[in-house]
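Summary of Year 1 activities. Much of the first year was spent building the evaluation harness for sequence design. The harness presents a backbone, in tokenized form, and records the residue chosen at every position. We chose the following record to illustrate the format because it has been used consistently in internal testing since the harness was completed.
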């Protein structure tokens, strides 16, 4: 299996995937949904360190130069039918550890994926998580230290307080898809999509209550289109290709509700989705690269909170 020229061009989206390991110096209680807590805490620390206009973003005369805007709500390089300026499209936080009781010396791992222009703001994200560790995570203010940050190959970018930027490797989504294609060719394929986190999708103007293959394919296309707009890449040809829809043999899912608090809007809200798996009859060779791209970039709503991650088994 190989990438077509059109897909290769559409997947010329730069990214860095950072593997964080946190260590807790004392016993503590953490939120169940840590991706949401980490995302909220990161945003709060960025605001505390950088906002000079009382968080009134709508009327801020420094909006075009704002570090919080550039890291959290980056502008798109070109217009998109599926996103608007102000959406959180430049990063994803992944953390699928749902334990709440941690003890002194315990560690927590999570991933921060930066896309496009946000890649250059590594130090801002690092400082935000360092400050969050000092302030504490969640409503119990669980303090932590950053033990290490690694790249996709396991090389240390941050270790024992030292930063090694030579290990800060920028890749493209096309690179990731080629890597996964090589993996799949070495193993027997189950033709199953396992959702590692909840996914929130709209299909025909209704939120999905069960998995639908056409909705998932359309969601991957939309997400690629948004990231192309973020990068200024032309991925329009991707929409001209019609993919064969594999029949769903079996699916299991459950509803998930993730509470979150927006410090910028000073309001509580609940993120909703479904989580589970779907087994399909057969994934064709032309569809496989598209679905593998979706693994990395996430699909649906609330991707910055870790929603929409799946794995092709």
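For this record, the design step produced the sequence shown next.
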């Amino acid at each position: 299996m190989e990438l077509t020229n059109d897909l290769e061009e559409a997947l010329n989206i730069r990214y860095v995937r950072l593997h964080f390991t946190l260590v807790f110096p004392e016993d503590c209680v953490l939120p169940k949904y840590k991706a949401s807590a980490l995302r909220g805490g990161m945003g709060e620390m960025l605001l505390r360190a950088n906002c000079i206009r009382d968080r009134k973003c709508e009327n801020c005369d420094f909006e075009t130069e704002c570090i919080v805007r550039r890291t959290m709500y980056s502008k798109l390089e070109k217009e998109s039918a599926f996103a608007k300026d102000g959406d959180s499209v430049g990063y994803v936080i992944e953390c699928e550890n749902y334990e709440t009781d941690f003890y002194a010396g315990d560690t927590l791992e999570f991933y921060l994926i930066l896309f496009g222009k946000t890649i250059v703001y590594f130090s801002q994200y690092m400082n935000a998580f360092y400050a969050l560790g000092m302030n504490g995570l969640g409503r119990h203010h669980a303090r932590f230290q950053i033990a290490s940050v690694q790249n996709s190959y396991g090389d240390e970018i941050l270790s024992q307080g030292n930063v090694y930027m030579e290990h800060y490797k920028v890749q493209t989504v096309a690179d990731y898809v080629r890597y996964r294609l090589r993996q799949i060719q070495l193993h027997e394929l189950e033709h199953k999509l396992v959702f590692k986190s909840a996914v929130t999708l709209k299909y025909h103007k209704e939120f999905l209550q069960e998995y639908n293959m056409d909705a998932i394919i359309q969601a991957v296309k939309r997400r690629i289109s948004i990231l192309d707009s973020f990068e200024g890449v032309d991925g329009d040809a991707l929409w001209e290709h019609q993919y064969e829809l594999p029949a769903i043999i079996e699916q299991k899912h459950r509803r998930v509700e993730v509470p979150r608090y927006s410090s910028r809007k000073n309001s509580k809200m609940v993120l909703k989705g479904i989580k589970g798996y779907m087994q399909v009859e057969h994934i064709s060779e032309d569809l496989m690269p598209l679905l593998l791209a979706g693994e990395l970039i996430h699909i649906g709503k609330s991707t910055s909170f870790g929603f929409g991650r799946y794995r092709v088994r």
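The longest helix spans residues 213-231. Quantitative recovery figures across the full test set are reported in Table 2.
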